[in-house]
Structure formats: C-alpha cells, structure tokens
C-alpha cells in the first residue's frame, strides 16, 4: 500500500466538513461536489492528505475545476482575521428586508468568474453588505462560514478509513447501514474481542461491507486471525472492504459465503464423513470374522489369491484414474464452492466470537450458529428494535446457552462548544440501536 494517490484507488474527497467517497478509475475521473465538477487528473502521485486549490477552467455554462496542490495548507486565508474589523453589540436593529446586499445576482456571478479566489468574492460581498458591520461578532462568523461553504475553493484528498466510511454511509442513508452508528460499531468491535489471533464469525444482512471491513481492520495484516462473513444473498456487500484496499494477504483471510449454502455444505460433509466411518467399521468387522474361519483348501486359496491380485491390480489402475478425475473436478469448481470449503474448514475448528447484525429476527440465526462457537466466548447481537432483543434475552435465559446477558442502548449527543454558547446540535440521530451481549456456556 503506497502513500501516494494512484489510479484505481478509492479516495475520500473532503471540502470543509463535507466528505465524499470516489473511485479514481482513470485520469478522466470527475468528482461532483454540489454543482461543481472537479477533475482528479492532477491528483495522481501526490501524497494523501494533500490540500488542493480548485482552479476554474474556462468553459462557458459549466463550473469545472482542475487541481493545484498547495505546498502548505497555511496558504488558505483566514477570512475572520481579514474581514471582521468592527462588530455590533446585538442584532435588535437589523431588519431582514432582503435589501442589505447591494450587489445583484448577475453581479455576484460575474464576480465568481473575474475574481481569482473565493476570499476575494466574499470580501466584495462583505463590502457591499449594509448590515455586516452592525452584526455581532458571532453573527459575522456565521455569515462568513455560510459564504465560505458556498465559495470555498480548496479540497483535501484523504485515504479511506473505517471512521470516515462509517460517517459517509450513515449520512447518505442510515438504513443501508442497518442503523449501525459509528459509536455503536466501535462497541460491537470491542464487545466481540476481535484481535490479531483467532477465528471470528459474523452474520450481517447488508451494511455496505462496513461490519466485515471493521472486523478485518481490527484483525490486521500479517496475522493469524480469520473471519467468516455470512450473508443471506447471492453476493456479499463489499463496498467498504474494497474502499479500504487491504493487502491481498489480509483480504484473503475474510471468507464471504451465503449462510444457507455453507450450513448445507457443512452438514452434508459431516454426513459423508460419518458414512465413511461406518463403512470402515463394517470392513474391520468383516476382516475379523474372516480371520476366525478355518483354513481353506490350497487350490481354493490360490484361486482366491489370484482373484485378489487381479482386484489389487485393477485398484492401482483405478486409483490413478480417480486422482486424475478429482483434479479435473477441482478445476471445474466454482468460486463459491471453493469459498464454502474454506469456510467449512474454519467452522470445524470453531470460532472465538459471534457477531449478528441482521434485518431479520436474529434468534433463529443465533440458534443455527451457536454450535460453532467455543465455550466462554463473546456473543454480540445488534438490532434497532429493543423488543426483538428482549425476546432473545428471555429465550436465552430459558435455555441457559449464553450467560452474563446484557441488553444496552447507545446514546451519543454532539455538542457545539463555543464561548458562552455551548449546546447540543439541533439535528442528531435519535438512537444508535441496541446491543445484546453475553458469553457462551460449554456443553
């Protein structure tokens, strides 16, 4: 993994507090930031965390920009220091009559084309504002931030991380994250005890790949940890996994398989093994019976030996044919069959924790997967419904298959911290969901 931006990478494009995930497919890739279109061509080979200046291209009717890397972020000018010179005591005499700005819309658009920087545009707006000087300092700061957000001409390109991806997916659509907020995600990882060693079992039914990406990130690269990722569909959601661009060795230790397919494969394999053991036992019993019988006539023995010799010769020739046939069959196996076999081999060793994040009622899934978890290992179940987890809590208490059961809810509030005006954000999520945690009991 290099520290420079290259074609094929997933990028986090940040403009002030706004972030967007973008695949840098080729040198013609364009990222849309609101009404602005930004060409990423000139970002190639620059280090991550580089701040770029948006340079407008002369194309009539379109707001297209190219990139110019800044040698240091300090080149970004501080509008507060530049433009706030005097302030009023309060806003009681300010009347919002839509007449405070002397410049018309056409003149402002012309300014955007003529001025070299956004700070010049904002400076002209401040000069032509009749009420700016009479606003309080706090109101002036809010005004400048609002205008800066609209005319800001810098972006920073960052490498994707679990926190940034979780924030982006949560902002776009909380349902596509199954309601898993970032603070809840961190608690799931903490309760499940995911680390660099051990085998871990995850079932999730659609979080854009955030859960497997977060768990694989905690396992780390160059370790012995393995993750079996179960999902209900034909194809697993792996957007976040792909965006994280883990090393090939680390990514190979996450096996994504359909839950119904792999369970069927596991139990069919188990039945086949039991059948082979039964046949071997019967063969041993027959040999014991033959050994106890009296000696046969020499001629009959020779005939039998000759027949056995022919059978042995046939078996040698047949074994070569069966080996060649098996190699041919292995080559014909589809990728999902190979993944099922890999997952089954890990399932036979059993797992060090179980995590379930499901749209469905989790109890039947929990019952199906609990036999694959070692004793005294953590179990974590997430749901946006408290009632569903309460039902699971009661059932698990009755069966006594999981102990130290705890049902918890997350409550996180973001605060605006400013002098004399500290308060919670006006808009925030109502709930981060609920977690049911416990530890398995040995049979």
Number of domains: 3
What kind of assembly state do the chains in view correspond to? single chain
The helix/strand series, from N terminus to C terminus, equals EEEEEEHHHHEHHEHEHHEHHHEHEHEEEE
SS field, number of helical segments:
14
Strand order of the largest sheet: 2-1-7-5-6-4-3
CATH level 1 class label of the largest domain: Alpha Beta
Function: Substrate-binding subunit of tRNA (adenine-N1-)-methyltransferase, which catalyzes the formation of N1-methyladenine at position 58 (m1A58) in initiator methionyl-tRNA.
Organism: Anopheles maculatus
Family: Belongs to the TRM6/GCD10 family.
Keywords: Nucleus, tRNA processing
Secondary structure blueprint with pairings:
Elements: E1 10-15, E2 18-23, E3 30-33, E4 36-39, E5 50-56, E6 64-69, H1 79-83, H2 105-114, H3 118-127, H4 137-151, E7 154-158, H5 162-172, H6 182-192, E8 199-204, H7 210-219, E9 226-231, H8 239-244, H9 248-251, E10 254-258, H10 259-292, H11 298-332, H12 335-349, E11 353-357, H13 362-369, E12 378-383, H14 386-399, E13 402-409, E14 415-416, E15 423-424, E16 434-440
Parallel strand pairs: 4-6, 8-9, 8-11, 9-10, 11-12
Antiparallel strand pairs: 1-2, 1-7, 3-4, 5-6, 5-7, 12-16, 13-16, 14-15
Subunit structure: Heterotetramer.
Pfam families: Gcd10p
Biased composition (Basic and acidic residues): 273-287
């Amino acid at each position: 993994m290099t520290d420079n931006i290259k074609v094929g990478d997933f990028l986090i494009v940040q403009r002030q507090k706004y972030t967007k995930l973008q695949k840098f497919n080729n040198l013609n890739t364009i990222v849309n930031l609101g009404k602005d279109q930004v060409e990423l061509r000139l970002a190639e080979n620059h280090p991550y965390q580089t701040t770029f200046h948006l340079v407008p291209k002369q194309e009539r009717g379109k707001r297209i920009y190219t990139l110019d890397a800044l040698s240091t972020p300090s080149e970004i000018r501080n509008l507060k220091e530049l433009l706030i010179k005097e302030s009023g005591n309060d806003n009681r005499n300010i009347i919002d009559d839509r007449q405070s700005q002397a410049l018309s819309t056409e003149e402002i658009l012309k300014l955007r084309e003529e001025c070299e920087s956004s700070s010049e545009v904002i400076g002209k707006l401040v000069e032509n504002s009749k009420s700016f000087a009479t606003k309080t300092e706090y109101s002036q700061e809010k005004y400048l931030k609002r205008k800066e957000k609209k005319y800001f001409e810098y972006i920073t390109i960052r490498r994707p991380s679990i926190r940034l991806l979780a924030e982006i997916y949560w902002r776009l659509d909380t349902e596509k994250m199954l309601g898993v907020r970032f603070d809840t995600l961190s608690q799931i990882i903490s309760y499940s005890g995911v680390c660099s060693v051990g085998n871990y079992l995850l079932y999730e039914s659609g979080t854009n790949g955030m859960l497997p990406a977060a768990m694989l990130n905690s396992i780390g690269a160059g370790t012995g940890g393995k993750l079996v990722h179960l999902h209900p569909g034909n194809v697993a959601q792996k957007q976040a996994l792909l965006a994280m661009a883990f090393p090939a060795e680390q990514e190979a230790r996450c096996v994504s398989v359909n839950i119904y397919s792999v369970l069927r494969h596991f139990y069919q394999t188990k039945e086949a093994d039991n059948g082979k053991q039964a046949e071997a036992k019967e063969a041993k019993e027959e040999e014991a019976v033959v050994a106890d019988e009296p000696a046969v006539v020499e001629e009959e023995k020779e005939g039998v030996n000759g027949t056995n010799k022919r059978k042995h010769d046939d078996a040698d020739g047949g074994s070569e044919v069966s080996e060649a046939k098996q190699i041919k069959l292995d080559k014909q196996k589809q990728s999902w069959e190979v993944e099922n076999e890999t997952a089954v081999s890990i399932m036979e060793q059993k797992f060090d924790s179980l995590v379930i994040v499901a749209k469905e009622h989790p109890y039947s899934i929990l019952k199906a997967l609990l036999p694959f978890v070692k004793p005294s290992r953590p179990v974590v179940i997430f749901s946006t419904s408290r009632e569903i987890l309460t039902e699971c809590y009661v059932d698990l208490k009755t069966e006594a298959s999981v102990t130290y059961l705890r049902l918890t809810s997350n409550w996180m509030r973001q605060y605006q911290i400013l002098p004399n005006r500290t308060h919670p954000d006006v808009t925030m999520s109502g709930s981060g969901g609920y977690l049911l945690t416990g530890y398995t009991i040995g049979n």
